[in-house]
Amino acid sequence: MINKRIVPAAWFEDEQAAHLIDVHSRGLDRFEMSKYASSDFVASLNITPKKGRSFIHLISLGAGERYGPNTNADYFNKTARSHTAPAPVTPSVKTIQLAGGLDEYHKTFMKYGGVYKEHNNSKKGGKRYGDVYAEMMSPTMDRGELVIEVDNDSWGDNLHKMASGKNVFFSMGAGLPYDICSYCHNKAATRKQYCQHMTHQKLQLSKEGHQIYAFNDRPHFHDISDVVSPSDKIAFGLSKVASDGALFPDHFNAPELTYIPLALIDKLGSRTEHQKAAAVDKMSKMEKQILMQGMSPAESCMCDSFEDDLPSEDIKHMSEFPLGDVLGALKKSGVMLPPKAFIRIVIKKPEGDVKGLDGIHDALRTVFSDISKEGSTYDLVEDSSYDTAEPRYWTELHRLVDKVASSHSMSLDNISRRILYKAVTVPHLGKLAGDSLRTAKRISAESRYLAREYAKYQISFVAGADPSLAEHAAIHNQSSF
Hints:
- Strand 10 and strand 11 (143-151) form a beta hairpin.
- This protein has two domains: 2-226, no CATH class; 237-477, no CATH class.
- Helices cover 41% and strands 15% of the residues.
- The protein is globular, with a radius of gyration of 24 Å.
- Helix 11 crosses helix 23 (468-477).
- It has helices spanning 30-33, 39-43, 64-67, 101-105, 108-112, 156-163, 196-200, 230-244, 255-258, 262-268, 271-293, 297-304, 312-318, 323-332, 339-347, 360-364, 367-374, 377-382, 395-408, 412-425, 433-436, 445-462, 468-477; strands at 2-6, 18-20, 23-24, 27-28, 53-62, 74-75, 82-84, 95-97, 114-117, 130-137, 143-151, 170-176, 179-181, 187-188, 214-215, 220-226.
- By secondary structure, it is an alpha+beta fold.
Protein backbone atom coordinates (compact mmCIF):
# COMPACT_ATOMS: atom_id res chain seq x y z
CA MET A 1 0.00 0.00 0.00
CA ILE A 2 1.35 3.42 -0.96
CA ASN A 3 0.00 6.61 0.59
CA LYS A 4 -0.42 9.94 -1.17
CA ARG A 5 -1.22 13.47 -0.06
CA ILE A 6 -2.96 15.71 -2.58
CA VAL A 7 -3.21 19.49 -2.32
CA PRO A 8 -5.91 21.05 -4.56
CA ALA A 9 -3.78 24.18 -5.00
CA ALA A 10 -1.38 22.06 -7.08
CA TRP A 11 -4.03 22.09 -9.82
CA PHE A 12 -6.01 25.24 -9.06
CA GLU A 13 -3.48 27.85 -7.98
CA ASP A 14 -5.60 30.81 -9.05
CA GLU A 15 -8.85 29.56 -7.56
CA GLN A 16 -9.94 29.46 -3.96
CA ALA A 17 -10.43 25.76 -3.28
CA ALA A 18 -12.62 26.01 -0.16
CA HIS A 19 -15.69 28.11 0.59
CA LEU A 20 -17.97 28.36 3.58
CA ILE A 21 -21.53 27.43 2.63
CA ASP A 22 -24.16 29.92 3.76
CA VAL A 23 -26.86 27.75 5.27
CA HIS A 24 -29.87 29.43 6.85
CA SER A 25 -33.41 28.46 7.77
CA ARG A 26 -34.61 28.87 4.18
CA GLY A 27 -31.87 26.61 2.85
CA LEU A 28 -28.80 27.29 0.71
CA ASP A 29 -27.89 30.50 -1.03
CA ARG A 30 -27.81 28.68 -4.36
CA PHE A 31 -26.93 31.76 -6.42
CA GLU A 32 -23.79 32.39 -4.37
CA MET A 33 -22.81 28.71 -4.46
CA SER A 34 -23.19 28.55 -8.24
CA LYS A 35 -20.23 30.94 -8.58
CA TYR A 36 -17.73 28.36 -7.38
CA ALA A 37 -19.43 24.95 -7.37
CA SER A 38 -21.05 22.80 -10.00
CA SER A 39 -24.61 24.05 -9.76
CA ASP A 40 -26.17 20.63 -10.34
CA PHE A 41 -24.15 19.24 -7.42
CA VAL A 42 -25.23 21.96 -5.00
CA ALA A 43 -28.83 22.05 -6.19
CA SER A 44 -29.26 18.37 -5.40
CA LEU A 45 -28.25 18.78 -1.76
CA ASN A 46 -30.77 19.28 0.99
CA ILE A 47 -28.55 20.93 3.59
CA THR A 48 -30.25 22.32 6.68
CA PRO A 49 -28.66 24.19 9.60
CA LYS A 50 -27.09 22.10 12.37
CA LYS A 51 -26.27 23.50 15.78
CA GLY A 52 -22.52 23.79 16.30
CA ARG A 53 -21.71 22.59 12.77
CA SER A 54 -20.75 24.32 9.53
CA PHE A 55 -20.57 23.15 5.92
CA ILE A 56 -17.66 23.76 3.55
CA HIS A 57 -17.57 23.28 -0.21
CA LEU A 58 -14.18 21.96 -1.27
CA ILE A 59 -12.48 21.17 -4.57
CA SER A 60 -10.64 17.91 -3.97
CA LEU A 61 -8.47 17.26 -7.05
CA GLY A 62 -8.37 17.48 -10.83
CA ALA A 63 -8.54 14.73 -13.42
CA GLY A 64 -5.26 14.07 -15.20
CA GLU A 65 -6.88 13.96 -18.64
CA ARG A 66 -7.66 17.68 -18.30
CA TYR A 67 -5.22 19.10 -15.76
CA GLY A 68 -2.24 16.75 -16.04
CA PRO A 69 -0.15 15.60 -13.05
CA ASN A 70 0.30 17.74 -9.96
CA THR A 71 3.63 19.12 -8.74
CA ASN A 72 4.38 15.80 -7.01
CA ALA A 73 4.03 13.98 -10.36
CA ASP A 74 0.79 12.31 -9.26
CA TYR A 75 -1.70 11.77 -12.09
CA PHE A 76 -5.27 10.76 -11.29
CA ASN A 77 -7.00 9.39 -14.37
CA LYS A 78 -10.71 10.15 -14.56
CA THR A 79 -11.87 7.07 -16.44
CA ALA A 80 -10.92 3.50 -17.23
CA ARG A 81 -8.67 3.47 -20.30
CA SER A 82 -5.56 1.99 -21.81
CA HIS A 83 -2.04 3.42 -21.70
CA THR A 84 1.03 2.58 -23.77
CA ALA A 85 4.50 2.99 -22.27
CA PRO A 86 7.64 3.85 -24.32
CA ALA A 87 9.83 1.38 -22.38
CA PRO A 88 7.71 -1.11 -20.43
CA VAL A 89 9.35 -3.29 -17.77
CA THR A 90 7.73 -6.23 -19.57
CA PRO A 91 8.68 -5.62 -23.23
CA SER A 92 5.95 -7.87 -24.55
CA VAL A 93 3.26 -5.85 -22.73
CA LYS A 94 3.49 -2.25 -23.92
CA THR A 95 -0.15 -1.41 -23.28
CA ILE A 96 -1.97 -1.81 -19.97
CA GLN A 97 -5.57 -1.25 -18.96
CA LEU A 98 -6.23 1.28 -16.20
CA ALA A 99 -9.20 0.73 -13.91
CA GLY A 100 -12.10 3.05 -13.15
CA GLY A 101 -10.13 6.11 -12.05
CA LEU A 102 -11.82 9.01 -10.28
CA ASP A 103 -15.21 8.28 -11.83
CA GLU A 104 -15.23 5.08 -9.80
CA TYR A 105 -13.01 5.85 -6.81
CA HIS A 106 -13.79 9.46 -5.88
CA LYS A 107 -16.89 8.12 -4.10
CA THR A 108 -14.61 6.37 -1.56
CA PHE A 109 -14.59 9.75 0.21
CA MET A 110 -18.08 8.86 1.42
CA LYS A 111 -17.07 5.44 2.74
CA TYR A 112 -13.67 6.12 4.24
CA GLY A 113 -13.26 9.91 4.41
CA GLY A 114 -13.06 11.97 7.60
CA VAL A 115 -11.91 15.48 8.48
CA TYR A 116 -8.74 15.79 10.55
CA LYS A 117 -6.00 18.26 11.38
CA GLU A 118 -2.52 18.06 9.86
CA HIS A 119 -3.20 14.48 8.62
CA ASN A 120 -3.33 13.18 12.19
CA ASN A 121 -5.97 10.72 11.04
CA SER A 122 -7.65 7.71 12.62
CA LYS A 123 -4.81 5.40 11.55
CA LYS A 124 -2.56 7.45 13.84
CA GLY A 125 -5.15 7.60 16.61
CA GLY A 126 -6.10 11.18 15.76
CA LYS A 127 -9.38 12.88 16.53
CA ARG A 128 -12.01 13.19 13.81
CA TYR A 129 -13.31 16.75 13.49
CA GLY A 130 -15.89 16.29 10.75
CA ASP A 131 -17.43 14.14 8.06
CA VAL A 132 -17.95 14.09 4.32
CA TYR A 133 -21.53 15.16 3.67
CA ALA A 134 -21.52 14.74 -0.12
CA GLU A 135 -19.18 14.15 -3.06
CA MET A 136 -19.27 14.27 -6.83
CA MET A 137 -16.96 14.06 -9.82
CA SER A 138 -17.95 17.03 -11.96
CA PRO A 139 -18.58 15.96 -15.58
CA THR A 140 -18.19 19.55 -16.82
CA MET A 141 -15.14 20.66 -14.80
CA ASP A 142 -13.42 17.24 -14.62
CA ARG A 143 -12.66 17.76 -10.96
CA GLY A 144 -13.79 16.32 -7.66
CA GLU A 145 -16.00 18.33 -5.35
CA LEU A 146 -16.92 17.71 -1.73
CA VAL A 147 -19.14 19.15 0.94
CA ILE A 148 -17.70 18.52 4.39
CA GLU A 149 -19.36 19.11 7.74
CA VAL A 150 -17.10 20.36 10.55
CA ASP A 151 -17.28 21.18 14.24
CA ASN A 152 -17.51 24.96 14.85
CA ASP A 153 -15.49 24.97 18.07
CA SER A 154 -12.55 23.06 16.59
CA TRP A 155 -12.61 24.88 13.26
CA GLY A 156 -13.37 28.40 14.48
CA ASP A 157 -10.20 30.02 13.09
CA ASN A 158 -10.57 28.46 9.65
CA LEU A 159 -14.28 29.26 9.47
CA HIS A 160 -13.53 32.88 10.33
CA LYS A 161 -10.90 33.03 7.59
CA MET A 162 -13.29 31.67 4.98
CA ALA A 163 -16.08 34.01 6.12
CA SER A 164 -13.60 36.86 5.59
CA GLY A 165 -12.81 35.72 2.05
CA LYS A 166 -9.39 34.29 2.92
CA ASN A 167 -8.14 31.00 1.55
CA VAL A 168 -7.83 27.93 3.76
CA PHE A 169 -5.67 25.15 2.34
CA PHE A 170 -6.66 21.50 2.44
CA SER A 171 -4.86 18.28 1.66
CA MET A 172 -6.40 14.92 0.78
CA GLY A 173 -4.96 11.65 2.00
CA ALA A 174 -5.36 8.52 -0.13
CA GLY A 175 -4.08 4.98 -0.09
CA LEU A 176 -3.74 2.77 -3.14
CA PRO A 177 -2.34 -0.71 -3.78
CA TYR A 178 0.41 0.72 -6.03
CA ASP A 179 1.10 3.52 -8.46
CA ILE A 180 2.28 3.03 -12.03
CA CYS A 181 5.13 4.79 -13.82
CA SER A 182 3.89 6.40 -17.03
CA TYR A 183 7.18 5.65 -18.82
CA CYS A 184 7.86 2.01 -17.94
CA HIS A 185 4.68 0.78 -16.18
CA ASN A 186 6.63 -0.20 -13.05
CA LYS A 187 4.19 -0.84 -10.19
CA ALA A 188 5.34 0.45 -6.80
CA ALA A 189 3.55 -0.47 -3.59
CA THR A 190 6.10 1.61 -1.62
CA ARG A 191 8.46 4.39 -2.60
CA LYS A 192 11.35 1.98 -2.09
CA GLN A 193 10.03 0.11 -5.14
CA TYR A 194 10.14 3.17 -7.41
CA CYS A 195 11.91 2.84 -10.74
CA GLN A 196 14.71 5.19 -11.76
CA HIS A 197 12.23 7.33 -13.70
CA MET A 198 10.06 8.08 -10.66
CA THR A 199 13.10 8.39 -8.42
CA HIS A 200 15.15 10.78 -10.55
CA GLN A 201 13.06 12.09 -13.48
CA LYS A 202 9.66 13.17 -12.13
CA LEU A 203 7.76 15.52 -14.47
CA GLN A 204 10.62 15.49 -16.99
CA LEU A 205 10.08 14.82 -20.69
CA SER A 206 11.68 11.73 -22.17
CA LYS A 207 13.48 11.78 -25.49
CA GLU A 208 10.24 10.51 -27.09
CA GLY A 209 8.33 13.45 -25.59
CA HIS A 210 6.53 11.51 -22.85
CA GLN A 211 6.17 13.20 -19.48
CA ILE A 212 7.11 11.06 -16.48
CA TYR A 213 4.57 10.81 -13.69
CA ALA A 214 2.72 8.22 -11.64
CA PHE A 215 -0.76 6.94 -12.42
CA ASN A 216 -2.82 6.75 -9.22
CA ASP A 217 -5.46 4.49 -10.67
CA ARG A 218 -7.30 3.02 -7.68
CA PRO A 219 -7.20 5.58 -4.84
CA HIS A 220 -9.15 5.12 -1.63
CA PHE A 221 -9.61 8.57 -0.08
CA HIS A 222 -9.62 8.53 3.72
CA ASP A 223 -8.31 11.84 5.00
CA ILE A 224 -9.23 15.50 4.51
CA SER A 225 -7.00 17.83 6.52
CA ASP A 226 -6.41 21.53 6.83
CA VAL A 227 -2.85 22.45 6.00
CA VAL A 228 -1.41 25.37 7.90
CA SER A 229 0.99 27.54 5.90
CA PRO A 230 4.52 27.70 7.33
CA SER A 231 4.10 31.42 8.07
CA ASP A 232 0.89 30.84 10.03
CA LYS A 233 2.46 27.85 11.74
CA ILE A 234 5.46 29.82 12.99
CA ALA A 235 3.29 32.77 14.04
CA PHE A 236 1.02 30.45 16.01
CA GLY A 237 3.96 28.65 17.57
CA LEU A 238 5.58 31.89 18.72
CA SER A 239 2.35 33.12 20.30
CA LYS A 240 1.92 29.74 22.00
CA VAL A 241 5.36 29.60 23.58
CA ALA A 242 5.09 33.27 24.56
CA SER A 243 1.84 32.62 26.42
CA ASP A 244 2.70 29.49 28.37
CA GLY A 245 6.28 28.50 27.50
CA ALA A 246 5.18 25.24 25.85
CA LEU A 247 7.68 24.37 23.14
CA PHE A 248 5.37 22.08 21.19
CA PRO A 249 2.09 23.85 20.26
CA ASP A 250 -0.82 21.48 20.83
CA HIS A 251 -2.46 22.63 17.62
CA PHE A 252 0.31 21.14 15.49
CA ASN A 253 1.81 18.31 17.50
CA ALA A 254 0.30 15.70 19.75
CA PRO A 255 3.40 14.50 21.67
CA GLU A 256 1.87 11.18 22.59
CA LEU A 257 1.31 10.43 18.90
CA THR A 258 4.46 11.76 17.26
CA TYR A 259 7.09 9.43 18.70
CA ILE A 260 8.00 6.57 16.41
CA PRO A 261 11.35 4.82 16.87
CA LEU A 262 13.63 5.65 13.98
CA ALA A 263 14.24 1.96 13.43
CA LEU A 264 10.62 1.65 12.29
CA ILE A 265 10.90 4.34 9.65
CA ASP A 266 12.54 1.88 7.25
CA LYS A 267 9.37 -0.20 7.44
CA LEU A 268 6.74 2.53 7.72
CA GLY A 269 8.14 5.67 6.13
CA SER A 270 8.38 7.08 2.65
CA ARG A 271 11.66 7.40 0.76
CA THR A 272 11.92 11.06 1.81
CA GLU A 273 11.41 10.11 5.44
CA HIS A 274 14.18 7.50 5.16
CA GLN A 275 16.53 10.18 3.83
CA LYS A 276 15.51 12.63 6.54
CA ALA A 277 16.02 10.04 9.28
CA ALA A 278 19.54 9.33 8.00
CA ALA A 279 20.28 13.07 7.87
CA VAL A 280 19.03 13.62 11.43
CA ASP A 281 21.18 10.75 12.69
CA LYS A 282 24.30 12.05 10.93
CA MET A 283 23.82 15.66 12.00
CA SER A 284 23.12 14.66 15.60
CA LYS A 285 26.38 12.68 15.77
CA MET A 286 28.37 15.50 14.19
CA GLU A 287 26.86 18.07 16.52
CA LYS A 288 27.78 15.99 19.57
CA GLN A 289 31.31 15.52 18.26
CA ILE A 290 31.76 19.27 17.77
CA LEU A 291 30.28 20.04 21.20
CA MET A 292 32.57 17.56 22.96
CA GLN A 293 35.80 18.03 21.02
CA GLY A 294 35.52 21.42 19.37
CA MET A 295 36.23 22.05 15.71
CA SER A 296 39.33 21.00 13.88
CA PRO A 297 41.21 23.81 12.08
CA ALA A 298 39.71 22.66 8.77
CA GLU A 299 36.17 22.63 10.20
CA SER A 300 36.67 25.99 11.85
CA CYS A 301 37.96 27.47 8.61
CA MET A 302 34.95 26.02 6.81
CA CYS A 303 32.72 27.55 9.48
CA ASP A 304 34.23 30.95 8.77
CA SER A 305 33.48 30.52 5.06
CA PHE A 306 29.74 31.02 5.64
CA GLU A 307 28.63 34.62 5.35
CA ASP A 308 26.62 36.20 8.18
CA ASP A 309 23.29 36.72 6.46
CA LEU A 310 21.64 37.75 3.24
CA PRO A 311 21.23 41.47 2.47
CA SER A 312 17.89 42.75 3.77
CA GLU A 313 16.87 43.87 0.30
CA ASP A 314 17.42 40.35 -1.11
CA ILE A 315 15.41 38.83 1.76
CA LYS A 316 12.58 41.26 1.08
CA HIS A 317 12.53 40.45 -2.65
CA MET A 318 12.66 36.67 -2.10
CA SER A 319 9.73 36.83 0.33
CA GLU A 320 7.58 38.15 -2.51
CA PHE A 321 7.74 34.80 -4.34
CA PRO A 322 5.96 31.56 -3.36
CA LEU A 323 7.91 29.89 -0.54
CA GLY A 324 8.11 26.50 -2.28
CA ASP A 325 9.66 28.07 -5.38
CA VAL A 326 12.17 30.06 -3.29
CA LEU A 327 13.33 27.05 -1.26
CA GLY A 328 13.36 24.80 -4.33
CA ALA A 329 15.42 27.22 -6.43
CA LEU A 330 17.89 27.76 -3.60
CA LYS A 331 18.29 24.02 -3.04
CA LYS A 332 19.00 23.44 -6.73
CA SER A 333 21.86 25.94 -6.39
CA GLY A 334 23.11 24.35 -3.18
CA VAL A 335 22.12 27.37 -1.07
CA MET A 336 20.86 26.76 2.45
CA LEU A 337 19.44 29.96 3.89
CA PRO A 338 21.04 31.33 7.06
CA PRO A 339 18.71 31.08 10.09
CA LYS A 340 17.54 34.67 10.29
CA ALA A 341 17.03 34.98 6.54
CA PHE A 342 15.03 31.73 6.53
CA ILE A 343 12.65 32.88 9.28
CA ARG A 344 12.19 36.31 7.74
CA ILE A 345 11.42 34.89 4.28
CA VAL A 346 8.90 32.43 5.70
CA ILE A 347 6.94 34.84 7.88
CA LYS A 348 7.60 37.97 5.77
CA LYS A 349 8.52 40.27 8.66
CA PRO A 350 11.51 42.50 9.47
CA GLU A 351 14.05 41.06 11.91
CA GLY A 352 13.04 43.38 14.75
CA ASP A 353 9.42 42.21 14.59
CA VAL A 354 10.19 38.52 15.27
CA LYS A 355 10.47 37.69 18.95
CA GLY A 356 13.25 35.22 19.73
CA LEU A 357 15.12 35.68 16.46
CA ASP A 358 18.16 37.23 18.14
CA GLY A 359 18.74 34.06 20.16
CA ILE A 360 18.27 31.53 17.37
CA HIS A 361 22.02 30.98 16.82
CA ASP A 362 22.62 30.02 20.46
CA ALA A 363 19.64 27.65 20.36
CA LEU A 364 20.93 26.05 17.16
CA ARG A 365 24.23 24.94 18.74
CA THR A 366 22.51 22.03 20.50
CA VAL A 367 19.23 21.74 18.59
CA PHE A 368 19.71 18.16 17.32
CA SER A 369 21.07 16.93 20.64
CA ASP A 370 18.11 18.49 22.46
CA ILE A 371 15.61 16.94 20.06
CA SER A 372 17.28 13.53 20.35
CA LYS A 373 17.19 13.63 24.16
CA GLU A 374 13.47 14.45 24.14
CA GLY A 375 12.59 11.58 21.81
CA SER A 376 10.91 13.94 19.35
CA THR A 377 13.14 13.18 16.35
CA TYR A 378 10.26 11.92 14.24
CA ASP A 379 8.71 15.38 14.37
CA LEU A 380 11.57 16.55 12.13
CA VAL A 381 11.26 13.55 9.85
CA GLU A 382 7.50 13.68 9.34
CA ASP A 383 7.09 17.44 8.93
CA SER A 384 6.99 18.28 5.22
CA SER A 385 6.50 22.06 5.57
CA TYR A 386 9.83 22.83 3.90
CA ASP A 387 10.08 19.94 1.44
CA THR A 388 10.46 21.13 -2.14
CA ALA A 389 9.38 19.94 -5.57
CA GLU A 390 10.62 21.21 -8.93
CA PRO A 391 10.35 25.02 -8.62
CA ARG A 392 8.66 27.17 -11.20
CA TYR A 393 10.98 29.52 -13.09
CA TRP A 394 10.85 33.18 -12.10
CA THR A 395 13.37 35.42 -13.86
CA GLU A 396 13.89 37.77 -10.90
CA LEU A 397 14.06 34.91 -8.40
CA HIS A 398 16.65 33.16 -10.60
CA ARG A 399 18.72 36.36 -10.57
CA LEU A 400 18.51 36.60 -6.77
CA VAL A 401 19.54 32.96 -6.32
CA ASP A 402 22.51 33.38 -8.65
CA LYS A 403 23.53 36.45 -6.69
CA VAL A 404 23.65 34.73 -3.30
CA ALA A 405 25.09 31.41 -4.54
CA SER A 406 28.67 32.69 -4.56
CA SER A 407 28.55 33.58 -0.87
CA HIS A 408 26.16 30.92 0.45
CA SER A 409 26.25 27.85 -1.82
CA MET A 410 27.38 24.70 -0.03
CA SER A 411 28.94 23.20 -3.13
CA LEU A 412 32.55 22.23 -2.47
CA ASP A 413 33.87 24.54 -5.19
CA ASN A 414 32.21 27.59 -3.68
CA ILE A 415 33.22 26.69 -0.12
CA SER A 416 36.82 26.07 -1.21
CA ARG A 417 37.04 29.51 -2.81
CA ARG A 418 35.65 31.19 0.31
CA ILE A 419 37.99 29.25 2.62
CA LEU A 420 40.99 30.27 0.53
CA TYR A 421 39.90 33.91 0.64
CA LYS A 422 39.38 33.80 4.42
CA ALA A 423 42.69 32.06 5.00
CA VAL A 424 44.60 34.69 3.03
CA THR A 425 42.81 37.81 4.31
CA VAL A 426 41.75 37.02 7.90
CA PRO A 427 44.03 35.87 10.76
CA HIS A 428 42.34 32.70 11.98
CA LEU A 429 41.78 31.78 15.61
CA GLY A 430 40.74 28.16 16.09
CA LYS A 431 37.53 27.41 17.95
CA LEU A 432 37.89 25.35 21.11
CA ALA A 433 35.32 23.00 22.57
CA GLY A 434 34.56 25.55 25.25
CA ASP A 435 33.68 28.11 22.60
CA SER A 436 31.10 25.76 21.11
CA LEU A 437 29.48 25.30 24.51
CA ARG A 438 28.73 28.97 25.11
CA THR A 439 25.11 28.32 25.94
CA ALA A 440 25.16 29.18 29.63
CA LYS A 441 23.02 32.24 29.10
CA ARG A 442 19.32 31.59 29.11
CA ILE A 443 17.82 30.78 25.71
CA SER A 444 14.20 31.83 25.36
CA ALA A 445 11.42 29.42 24.43
CA GLU A 446 10.80 31.51 21.30
CA SER A 447 14.42 31.11 20.19
CA ARG A 448 14.28 27.36 20.75
CA TYR A 449 11.05 27.12 18.79
CA LEU A 450 12.53 29.04 15.84
CA ALA A 451 15.67 26.88 15.99
CA ARG A 452 13.54 23.74 15.63
CA GLU A 453 11.74 25.17 12.63
CA TYR A 454 15.12 25.94 11.09
CA ALA A 455 16.29 22.40 11.91
CA LYS A 456 13.27 21.05 9.98
CA TYR A 457 14.30 23.20 7.04
CA GLN A 458 17.88 21.92 7.27
CA ILE A 459 16.72 18.30 7.24
CA SER A 460 14.50 18.96 4.20
CA PHE A 461 17.46 20.64 2.50
CA VAL A 462 19.88 17.80 3.22
CA ALA A 463 17.48 14.91 2.42
CA GLY A 464 18.27 13.45 -0.97
CA ALA A 465 21.21 15.80 -1.56
CA ASP A 466 24.97 15.20 -1.59
CA PRO A 467 25.92 13.45 1.69
CA SER A 468 28.59 16.08 2.35
CA LEU A 469 25.84 18.67 2.80
CA ALA A 470 24.91 17.15 6.15
CA GLU A 471 28.45 17.85 7.36
CA HIS A 472 28.35 21.41 6.04
CA ALA A 473 24.93 22.01 7.59
CA ALA A 474 26.01 20.73 11.01
CA ILE A 475 29.08 22.99 10.94
CA HIS A 476 26.82 25.83 9.78
CA ASN A 477 24.89 25.52 13.07
CA GLN A 478 28.07 26.02 15.08
CA SER A 479 29.02 29.26 13.30
CA SER A 480 29.41 32.37 15.42
CA PHE A 481 27.83 34.56 12.75
